[in-house]
Amino acid sequence: MKLYTKTGDDGSTGLFGNYRVGKDSLRVEAYGTVDELNAFVGLAGAGCGDEMMKGRLADVQSRLFELGADLSRPPADQKNAGGKRAEGVIQTIDAGHVKVLEVWLDEVCDELPAMKYFVLPGGCELSARLHVARTVCRRAERLCVALSRHEEVSEHVIKYLNRLSDLLFAFARRANDLAGVADVPWKGKDQK
Asked: The domain spanning residue 129 has which CATH number?
């Protein structure tokens, strides 16, 4: 099987169910950013020595794959090139997936020292990688919100991304804590 299909040479790409859209569509931008996020979560996981965090990051990657697939579905009222609606089963993100992130977030935060200042991205390398993933997650969330103003997007997709960015922040702090590196405090112009 060849990796290339040439079907996108005209600037279009296929959504689930063989529905074609421009590669610059907001839906493609949203799920493309989720794919980018998944790659950054994988990069963080590759450098993670903490088995609990590494396992949870791997789980997040699977959920992000499903979330991206959900976003690759055309709106319910759209038909493909053959005039048919997209059919088939796509695993979707639901309230239970959001709840899992909340439980993990509470567990991680309970183990960390209280925050007494704003934290800049950085510290140890793993923390910095997790902060990059967090910022890409926020961008994915913003794109999904923008898409939801024009087309159907599951409320759980947006909630999942919102909780995930918080979890990635908490994991970044945990990475610093495990490495014995202090979080990098923000210092305003009047602070030394």
From this structure: 1.20.1200.10
The overall pTM is greater than 0.85: yes
182 φψ region: left (φ > 0), alpha (ψ -120 to 50), beta (else): beta
3 falls within a domain: no
Neighbour-count burial of 96, counting CB atoms closer than 10 A to its CB (0-12 exposed, 13-18 middle, 19+ buried): exposed
Q: pLDDT 10s digit of each residue in the chain, 192 long?
A: 777 777 566 665 666 666 666 567 898 899 999 999 999 999 999 999 999 999 999 999 999 999 998 888 876 655 544 544 445 557 789 999 999 999 999 999 999 888 887 888 899 999 999 999 999 999 999 999 999 999 989 899 999 999 999 999 999 999 999 999 988 878 877 665
Residues spanned by the domain of 118:
13-180
Task: Provide the number of structural domains found in the chain.
Answer: 1
